[in-house]
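Issue 218. Parser rejects a valid record. Input:
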Amino acid sequence: MNLVRTTARVPSPFCAGLLLASLGASLLLAGQSAGPTTGDANALIKKADKLYESGDLNGAVSSYRQAASFKPNDPEVLFKLGLALADQEHLDEAAANYEKAAALYQKMPGQRFNYAVTSNNLGLVYYRQGRLDDALARIDLAIATWPRTADWYASRGIVLEAKGKLEEAIEAYRKAVALAPRSADALAKLGAALQKKGQFDEAVSVLQRAVLAKPFDPDVFATLGDALAAKNQLDDAISAYARSLELHPDTPTVLYSLGNLQQRKGNTGEAIRDLQRANQLQPNDPDTLLGLGNALTQAGRAAEAIPLLEVAQKARPERADLRLALGNALTAAGRSADAIPLLRAALAARPDFPEASESLGVALLARSDFAGARAALESALKAHPEGAELHNNLGLALAGQRKFAEALAEYRRALDLNPQYADALANHAVALTLTGRQMEAVPEFHKALELQPHNLKAQANLAAALFDLRRYRESSEAWAKAVALSPDDADLHYNLGLTLEKAGRAEEARKAFAEARRLNPKLPAHP
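Output the parser choked on:
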């Protein structure tokens, strides 16, 4: 299974802008006189501003600290120091500086907007600290102080989402959009929240407006891709992700989303390419490893998937989906004995996990534990009664218990759900042969091979059915085609030899027996 992960991709919500002109050159508090170090402090602030704008956070913080040592009661310095510290994830110190700046602005005449900006940013720091009630109180204070600013409502929405109040969050984002209709940030947040609520049509519409408002923003295109994928508009979603990567190449979260979407589309090669690149950029992320492991398993490269999924499972041992993916890879690699304990553990962790029940059933089938497989598959079918593969696999388990009538019914149910299901058709035909109904089976094998010409099971069992019907010429032709599909299978060569012998083609039979013995010397010699 491929689990789609939606990652918030919005710019930093912190507001950097203050209304500074009204504060005067040095933002001194009433009654505070400029000392001999004021010029030095202002020079340090300018230097720190340039460092901050260039992305040198360490240098900016150092210079702001020096300026604050000269001007400890200057709210501008404290605000900017809090901003840089928050960007460094030094949240406790950032909060302390914002708190001091807010207290100073609150006392200063004419500084209501700056007080609101500081309160909003302080609320967002509290949010990142997990102090959601304190965060909401501060942001509501910003709204009450300066109510016509979209950013405050966007911040309110962020906190309400974190509190699990999605309806109220959407209402806050709508207010932000009403105040700033072309704000790509507000539109993106509203669109993402609508997607989360399942309102996909409106989410896509809102995010398309965000793209028009900010056509060179990779994050907006990525969020649009998420909504389109949720709406099952896969081609449009792929285009949106591709545009995001054109604007900002090598973004791991976008590569991850694109890779998973390619997997949903059946483009396994493209999925592996994108997920491998995401893993290179963000090594050993469990979700990326999960997607990549699933894609490799589906591509028949389970041996490559197993070590990746083992890393993910060790990193997050509590996750049942990782156990499931690793179990599937082990089964695909022929290691069903190793897969079964993992799949049982996944079900112990999540008893209502029909995908794990199905995989456990498949692994138990590989071990010929037909009773166990039947129980697991019947459990999965309770959740997914329309699963054609489940009915097909249950048929295999029943056939293994020699309950052929029930097996035939399950194969027929699978074919009712998916008439083009070649493997179910082949299994139905095999069950017919096991009940002595070769004449009925032969046309079904032919139909399966029309649907899937390289289906070795259908080809080999067609040959066997024709042999049982003593139609040796047709049988030998069918065995020859089976040999062409799997030329290193000694048993197929041997059966071809037996059939050629029955058809009176002794020399060809001798060559087939010789090749069978070459491939497997343990086979009995044939005169």
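Fixed in the parser; the record now loads. DSSP finds 28 helices and no strands in the chain.
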